[in-house]
Amino acid sequence: MTLAAAIFRLVRLGVSYIRLIMGRLRDALHRLNPDLPPAAIADAVDVMQGTGTPGLLGANREFQRRLTTGVQVYWQEDGETQGGRVRLADFTDPDKNDWLVVNQFTVTGTTTSGNRERRPDAVVFLNGMPVAVFELKNPATENADVWAAYRQLQTYKQEIPDLFRTNEVLVASDGVYARMGSLSSNEERFLAWRTIDGKEKDPLGQFGELETLVRGVFEKEHLLDYLRHFIVFEDDGGLSKKIAAYHQFHAVRAAVARVLEASAPGGSGKGGVVWHTQGAGKSLEMTCLAGKLMTHPRMKNPTIVVVTDRNDLDGQLHGTFDMAAEVLGEVPVQADSRIALREHLNDRPSGGIIFTTIQKFVPGEDEDTYPTLTQRDNVVVLCDEAHRSQYGMKARIKVHGDERTTLEYGYAKYLRDAVPNATFVAFTGTPIASKDKDTRAVFGDYVDIYDIEQAVKDGATVPIYYESRLVKLELDSSATEAVDEEVEELTEDEEESARARTKSRWAALE
Fold it and tell me: To bridge 356 with a disulfide, which of 261, 268, 335, 371 should be the other Cys (CB 3.0-4.6 Å)?
């Protein structure tokens, strides 16, 4: 029986919480770590049973670290201290893990009226650890809708917090509609999972949300991938837990497949275009994609270069990555100058996540071309807002004040000169397809599309309303092309935001 099917065929088990989790956990750890001594396994079980980090979200974050990297343990062997990590799960072979779904699982908690038993409708266990909790309401009961289930989950978090220390996802449903969120998600961030295979939306119809969610998320391989690569904690004035929505999960998986193909011997180097509208969560997607690529064995410890076209975007995205150590397994660095960028990339043997703006890829005053920094083929360049500045492959003639002429290219050409064998992936909400600027021509075909219509339907963003107004302009069409070229030349060394401000200031009609 599959895990998804088990959720629909629940069996009540009258077993106490502590005995269930510790017994199954202990057996699983012995099985998953046959080379470690029993004392090391016992220490790992003690660590998992301890209270550890105070606060529910803090303890949950510590669990996430242990789940993805293992539990650090030490033991004595031949008079010397040895160390190692105990794996909590096997992420490569789902069937080597212990899976269990329990209906009406009884947990004793503290309420305002004293100790009481609470019974979540369904709990999913991975190697004895409760990683998912379902609350299911009867749609025939008045006021018992999906949001009543959501509120019940919030009550459980307060009354039986021990059950949620290892929780990864929460599911609220009234049997027809279903929403999934994290421990810190509010109602707005409890979202529907609208696909099973990542291609067809709502395959079971609008009243089949619960089954679509269960079959789409709780297929064993999908769930393990989700737990390892699609959960991020952020601490920006307060700890929060972010989990991927369905479009992010499948876009990242598709992007990984495209990168593997494009970076293989004879590959095109074009990793494709992720066309996701504003508000779709591209920062989380890029973080999860980087994490999956960093750990993929076929990528052989790649270097990830994240390219933006504005300093503020570079800082924001770097901040998101910096707080995602559980996913990335490496601390990203920010190249704060052209020299620093070259130092980070030049002949780098492996690894590393480097942030930079595309304007730093420009030849020095004494250089005619941009130097090659690495010939490696396991470098992946992730370009944010790629529709704006990833062009300029053709040469143009620049006339200097002393009447010298030189050939110059756009930043995208210099970027590719620096890492000629890299694979490039574009993230954008507005791809361009024009004569001299074509996002797909530069990066390859679309990896995934998530447009504004679907985002509004999913509640990921709000609808946009506008009133069309026509302003009559009379411009000399013969002069506009020359003006555009002059403006591009005058502002070529500025960041995209500064260029936009300059154009706006001088383009006003008076």
Answer: 335
Could you count the other beta carbons within 10 Å of the beta carbon of residue 236? 9
H-helix segments, 436-476: 439-443, 452-458
Smallest Cα–Cα separation from 256: which of 218, 299, 219? 299
CA terminus-to-terminus distance, the chain: 73
Whether 165 has a pLDDT exceeding 60, the answer reads yes
DSSP state of 279: T
Give pLDDT tens digits for 246-301: 999 999 999 999 999 999 999 999 999 999 988 889 999 999 999 999 999 999 99
Instruction: Give the CA distances from residue 212 to residues 182, 207, 401, 490, in Å, rounded to whole numbers and listed in that order.
Output: 18, 10, 66, 54
CA 163 – CA 109 distance, rounded (Å): 10
HEC string of 313-341 equals HHHHHHHHHHCCHHHHCCCCEECCCHHHH
| β-pair partners for 476 | none
**Contact yes or no for 89/25 (Cβ under 8 A):** no
- Nearest Cα to Cα of residue 295 among 243, 225, 346: 225
- Burial readout 339-357 (b: 16 or more C-beta within 10 A, e: otherwise): eebbebbeeeeeebbbbbb
Whether pLDDT at 215 is above 60: yes
